[in-house]
Amino acid sequence: MLPTYPELTTYAEAYPYVPLSVRVPWPDHLDPWELLQRLQPTLEGAVLLESGRAGRYSYLAYQPMAVITSQDGQTEAAFPDGHVQMLDGQHPLDALRRFLAQYRTPALPDFPDFYGGAVGYLSYEMNRFFEPSLPQIAYDDLRLPDLYVMIMQDLLVFDHAKRECFCVTHLPSRGLTEDSYRDAADRLSRQAEELSRLLETAADDTDWDALRKRPLESATPAEVSFAQEQFEEAVRRVQTYISQGDVFQVNLSVRQSKPMKTSGPEVYGVLRKLNPSPYMGYLQFPEFQLVSASPELLIKVKDGKVSTRPIAGTRPRGKNDAEDEALVRELIENEKERAEHVMLVDLERNDLGRVCRYGSVRVSEFMVVEKYSHVMHIVSHVEGELAEDKDAFDAVAAAFPGGTITGAPKVRTMEIIEELEPVKRGVYTGSIGWFGFHGDVEVNIAIRTMVVKDGTAHVQAGAGIVIDSQPQAEYLESLKKAEALWKALELSENRKKSREEKSV
Fold first, then answer.
1. Strands (E) located in 310-455
2. Is the peptide bond before 409 cis (omega within 30 degrees of 0)?
3. Residues with Cβ < 8 Å from 190, sequence gap 6 or more?
4. Which residues cross the membrane (predicted)?
5. Could you tell me if 149 and 68 are in contact, meaning their C-beta atoms sit under 8 angstroms apart?
6. Are 291 and 267 in contact (CB under 8 A)?
7. Residue 348: enclosing H or E segment and its boundaries?
8. Contacts by 268-273 with C-beta closer than 8 Å and gap 24+?
9. Do 316 and 470 contact (CB within 8 A), yes or no?
10. Count: domains in the chain
């Protein structure tokens, strides 16, 4: 049990809440997603955050102690007993900062990066809280909250390096006694025992090779927010703005929507096998679900260190190794792609410079190629040291929304996006992730993300438009970036069909 009771009493003198955890072995066959599937029938709010690329931790949380939403300028906290508290403040992030301060915990060295706090998303339209002058033109067809986070005091953390599972809870410092410590420890121990029983049987028996080879049914045509000719006209409009000196680059996007024969959880279960990515996530809200395989970090703050990982430059994967390597060389040597990437890395350096100690911002990794199931990208890593008068919320505010999905200069490109894109982006190019009770944060850029609402799947993707962009090619690139999600949808429908056939 960590921490011990004497350690906990020391922390309780300085913090309103203190964390407590017990660890259990993590069997090799365990898949956190299968565990969530077993828990899911009883859940109304749940989240699973994973990394498909050498990430150390996966986070599974459910039964939130509160849910905070912001919509139409109103931010509120809803509690399980039905009580709703209106949160003061013009900015939803300020309201969230103040709410989490009530539950501030110490940063403990033997604990994972995240062990309690707010988990959820910030929509792209949160940008107007950072830049109040931005126009509001695009149609809000999905009507999703600008901010939607679940406050989690209890969660499971899977340590991939040590093959351990943390069961974590939090105790109020006021009134902390050895008896309350023992009661919480006993509850965690019972949870660990129940978890162990679930782990013994939580195995995925799906034949993934056979499923991938099974012919896909004819795909239902997707409705698009931008017809191709309208998108291409918008590209030409952006190029006019560029030639006039307004901007250097603008990211334009297309939303595709189609009815589903399966569910959000089923799609995520396939996507994590089909296209493992650094910032995977499944978020289950009562009204809708999010299925995400984002490759891109917006901001991470850990122990006073701030980092971001911009992506700019894309090519499809090759049909074989030789073609793949040829595409890598063509991508990395392409002058247009290099210039665009350098411009956006500079933008991110400037964003971090607003909240980091002077002279501490540096590019620690520059223009490497990362490969995914359907595309490859050029990626860099920018980091710095958080200034003493700034916190994790300031870091998010400085970088949000990411420059790679808006363009440069950022404010003017957001004005142009609002003018040209017909529907609000919502979750797309916002951020998904967590704000810890202990003051750290990690949020992605919500690309390669599906919104599942009212039996319909919505996927949005875009392309960076520059002066010499080819309108048709940019439209096709936008569609290409969404392919992994649509393939996951179709495979999940086939998986469901296979199960139904076996049960007959």
1. 311-316, 362-371, 375-385, 407-408, 431-436, 441-444, 449-453
2. yes
3. none
4. none
5. yes
6. yes
7. helix 335-353
8. 268/33, 268/48, 268/488, 269/33, 269/37, 269/492, 269/495, 270/211, 270/488, 270/489, 270/491, 270/492, 270/495, 271/484, 271/485, 271/488, 272/33, 272/50, 272/52, 273/208
9. no
10. 1
In a domain, 210, yes or no: no
- The answer to whether 238 touches 416, Cβ cutoff 8 Å, is yes
Give residue 254's domain range.
5-201+224-503
Q: Within a domain: residue 140? A: yes
Query: pLDDT tens, 275-287?
Result: 888 899 999 999 9
The Cα 315–Cα 396 span in angstroms is: 29
C-alpha distances in Å from residue 337, one per residue of 289, 343, 368: 34, 10, 12
Please determine, for residue 203, whether its predicted confidence score (pLDDT) is greater than 60. Answer: no
Bigger pLDDT: 407 vs 216: 407
Q: Would you say residue 488 lies in a domain?
A: yes
Among candidates 133, 98, 106, which has minimal Cα distance to 393?
A: 98
Q: Are 152 and 119 in contact (CB under 8 A)?
A: yes
Average pLDDT over residues 364-384: 88
The model's pLDDT over 146-180, given as tens digits with 9 standing for 90+, comes to: 999 999 999 999 988 888 888 999 999 998 999 99
Q: 3-state SS of 224-289?
A: ECCCHHHHHHHHHHHHHHHHCCCCCEEEEEEEEEEECCCCHHHHHHHHHHHCCCCEEEEEECCCCE
Q: For the chain, what is the mean pLDDT?
A: 89
pLDDT of residue 40: 67
**Chain position carrying tokens 């469901």:** 496
Is residue 212 assigned to a domain? no
Least Cα distance to 77 among 143, 147, 16, 142 occurs for 147
In whole angstroms, give the CA distance from residue 239 to residue 248: 9
**pLDDT greater than 80 at residue 38:** no
Which of 244, 496, 498, 488 is CA-nearest to residue 372? 488
**CATH number for the domain that contains residue 191:** 3.60.120.10
441-471, pLDDT tens digit by residue? 999 999 999 999 999 999 999 999 999 999 9
Q: How many other C-beta atoms can be found within 10 angstroms of the C-beta atom of residue 175?
A: 8
Comparing 150-159, 186-195, 289-298, 448-457, which segment has the lowest mean pLDDT? Answer: 186-195
